[in-house]
Every structure is written in C-alpha cells, then in structure tokens.
Amino acid sequence: MDRDARIARVLRYHERTMHRYPGGYARSLGHLDWATQPDPFRAYEGAPIVLLDEIAVGAGHEATWSAVRDATITPAPVDARTIAQLFYDALAISAWKQAGRSRWALRCNPSSGNLHPTEAYLLCDAFDGPGLFHYAPRMHGLERRRDLDVEAWRALAPDGGMIVGLASIAWREAWKYGERAFRYCMHDVGHAIGALAIAARPLGWSVRVIEGVDDARIARLLGLEESRGVESERPDVLLAIDPQGSRGALDVAWSDDVVGTACAGVLRGVANRLSSNHQRWDVIDDVEDASREDGAGEAHPAPPALVRSNHDGPSPSARLLARRRRSAVEMDGVTSISRDAFFRTMRSLVPALTPALHPLPWAPEVHPVVFVHRVEGLEPGLAILVRDPAAEPFLRSRIALADEWVRLPGAPDDLPLYGIAQGDARTIARALTCHQDIAADGAFAVAMLARFAPVLRARGPSWYRRLHWEAGHVGQLLYLEAEAHDVAATGIGCFFDDGIHELLGIESDDLRALYCFTVGGAVNDPRIQTQPAYSERG
Ligand SMILES: Cc1cc2nc3c(=O)[nH]c(=O)nc-3n(C[C@H](O)[C@H](O)[C@H](O)COP(=O)(O)O)c2cc1C
C-alpha cells in the first residue's frame, strides 16, 4: 500500500539521518559554501506591502507570563494593530547583531543555524478586503499576494478570525546541514506554532490547528502551488487564529469549489531567488513527499483535560519575554536554578496542567528526559517528565535504564516527574550532544523522546512532521520559561541519536530521541553588539 511504503520511506530517512556516537554525522556538504548562502528573507518582488506598526512592549495588549499560562484573558478586537502585535511578538525581528563586519538579524522564533526556513502567510479581512498576505519579517510588513473573493473568504474564515499558514524552504537548512535538515525544518515549524500561540495569548486569542486539509490544498491557499525546484517552499500547516480563545483542533470540510474560488485571484509578486547556486538533496525531497499530509485527519486521542489551574500572581510581561528570547551561545557552568523554578518550568510543558500554552490538539507523544545538573535541592541525575499519564506504562516498558522510577523530592503531587538515575550527568550530556559544552554547562539539559514508529504506523507518515512540531513546541516553552526565570535556553538539534538510545536502554524504534535542549546561565560575548530591530524603517 502507498501509505505503508511512505511510512517505510520516512523511517528510512530517520535512520539514515541519525548522528552516531562518537563522530558519525549525517551527510552534509562538510563545509559551508558561503557563496551560495541562502537569503533568510523571502520577498515577493512587485507585491504591494502593508507595513505593520511596531507595537512596543507596554504599548499594546499586555499580560504577565503567569496570566498567559493560566488565566482567562479578555479578547482584543481583530484589527491592523492587534495583527501587528501578533506578528511582532511571534515572528518579527527582535534585534540585529553585529560582530566586526558581519551583521545578522535575530527573530522572536528561533531557528537551527539562524537559517529560518519557516515562512508565514496570513488569510484575513483586516486590510482593504479579504486577502492572502505573506509576512515579511525584514520589514515587519504584509505583502498582499492575492485578493480573496468575499463569499469564498466567508466560507473559509474561522468565526471572525483569520488563518495563518506556515511553509518551509528546506534548502535554507540543507545548505548548511545537508540530509538532516528536514528534521530541523520541522522543529522550526513547532517553534513557530509555539511562538504564535504565546503571542496570541495577551490578545485573548488562541491558535488552533486546522485539520482535514491536504498539502495540495494548503499550497493552493497559500499561493505556493507553483513553487518548484531546489528553493521550493512546501506547505506545513494552517492555523486558525481564534479571537474567542477557544481550544482544540478546527475540523473543516472545505469544498473544492470554495477553495477554487478562494484561489481564483491573480497572484502578485515574484518570489526572490535565495541562492546563486544549489546543491540538491534528493533525500529531503523524498521525505518531504513521503510525509505529506493527505488530509485524512486520522483518529488520535485528544489531549487530557485540565487537571488544575495554577494562577500564581505577579510575573514578568509575556510580551517582554517573547521579544527578548535568545539562545545562549555559551553557558557559564555555575548558575543554578531553584527547585521551584524548575518545577514551574516542567509544569508548563504538561498540557493537562497548563492547557492555554498548548495548541497542538493531540495527546502528548513527546516526553523530556532531563539531565539535572544544578537545580537547588535536587541531586544530579536523570529524570523523566511524562507529559501524558496514559503514556507511562509504555515509557516504563521501553526505557530499560531504570527499574525504579522515584518521585523527585518536593515535586508537586500533580507533576508527573520521576527520577530514573542518579549521578553527575554533565560529561554524558556533552558527549551525546555532539560534544557541545552548552549541554553540560547549563542548570539542566533535556533529551526529548517521542513514541515513534507506533504513531506513524497507526496514524500515517505525516505524523513524522507532527512529532517534530511537538518537540519544537516543547522547546519554545523551554525558551520562554528560561527567560521568565532570568536564565536562557538553547535548542540542540545536533545530538547522537544512537548514544541517547543506548544510554536509556531504548532498543527499538518504538521510542526515538527527536530533539535536545539546555537551560542555564548564559555567557554573553562582549564582541557582539546589539542593535534595534527596525531602526532602518525610520
Ligand atoms: C531546531 C534547532 C536546533 C538547534 N540546534 C543547535 C545546536 O545544536 N547547537 C547550538 O548551539 N544551537 C542550536 N540552536 C540554536 C540556534 O542556533 C539559534 O536559535 C539561532 O542561532 C538563532 O538565535 P536565537 O535563538 O537567539 O534567535 C538550534 C535551534 C533550533 C531551533
């Protein structure tokens, strides 16, 4: 069957792109070809652009991080200003950095290698009639690509809201990372979903995954059906931005007629060329195709219901945290975090405890193993956070390292966090993350495990993408929680898959490590200067 063959292709891709301890890396060029470095900014030359306002922190709809996590927030109206705030906090440039003659932009959403394969599109009726727009972070503007038929937009529009579509240009990542790049693209999509969901919360809005639309239709709706060649942009997901703040997936059954009419307008603008020359990575084309979404919306359990809310008074501005989020390039090896901050961080990763932070509409399949280095009041060692209690028997049976799971001292009763090994895990954390010091020198590091082949077999090959989105989303929450506790985080895509599996005694592809992280005290490089995000706009 086609479906089984596609699952087999995806599993082969994953196996083939594992990094193997101590120095076997997935295929890449092996050096950086600076002459062909892709432009991180897509522009549609010739498309009219609507510049969005910069909504400074403090001048928009504000909420504290703890309110974003736990409280009900009164919805703001959907208009040019609130849309500007959403993009400003989620996907805009947050600062420019300069060292010597190199200058580069950072954004609110992180990206492996700062290469930013993720592009965002907006379907809305807030700027002179319904339209399809491309979000251009370089200018913090919306390029109007197509006018939408009013009736067709009414049929598509989620109840007074709008639709954000995400797409990936894998070439941007493959330029540096070769065959493993598709994984990073999918992590980045997860980070972007998380960034949008967090940015929506101070506005009282929510982000909901739209189910039941296949990739071909997403591509048409986003104006990408003609995107071809090495620089092609492939559709990932449609998200409903719900101004009522409702949660859960949005199942749609759009007719061909509605989609056809919505896409009937002429597309404006021509996509800029990103590189002067390219290296083809057939393996990436293959996994993109094999893991495509066919819109069948295969059955999956919903996230567990709310256990208990935990609104806990004053905390920093969520918008401030979203705009100042940065990856630590180096960790100081001394900063510890309090047990309370650690448990609070873990809490935010559990959908049943903090549902407002969790837009993905399926029961969690990603479970972090934590390398505890410096958490006050906890012994160093390994712990596991079971993000869905229903997954516990499965995890226990597949992780052979520990016979005994013990509740961590002081952990809140409702936090499913268990110690699985004791001892200093710094050396092993460094070794398993491609020998990166940041994994040893933080307060804790994380290896995210996902229930893997059984999910793909039961639900289809597009879940390969979804599992990576989930890992990326968990990572986005780690970034924000780190900022909230005055430390920093860094995503770690470079890890030795086999080494992590071996350490934990994982013997089959029932369970796979998909992403790593570190959280701790960052060391800032004084040679790097920081400049404002949009000074050039005047
Ligand atoms: C999927 C992913 C994988 C990453 N892998 C690594 C890594 O292995 N090592 C590292 O130092 N940084 C890693 N990073 C951090 C990026 O380099 C960083 O996000 C990027 O340079 C942009 O900087 P910013 O996060 O401060 O905006 C990763 C980030 C993401 C999103």
Automatic annotation (TrEMBL):
Nitroreductase domain residues: 75-226, 430-520
Pfam families (UniProt xref): Nitroreductase (PF00881)
Region of interest (Disordered), ranges: 290-318
Family annotation (InterPro entries): Nitroreductase (IPR029479), Nitroreductase-like (IPR000415)
Superkingdom assignment: Bacteria
GO terms for MF: oxidoreductase activity
Protein name (record): Nitroreductase domain-containing protein
Organism from which the protein derives: Sandaracinus amylolyticus
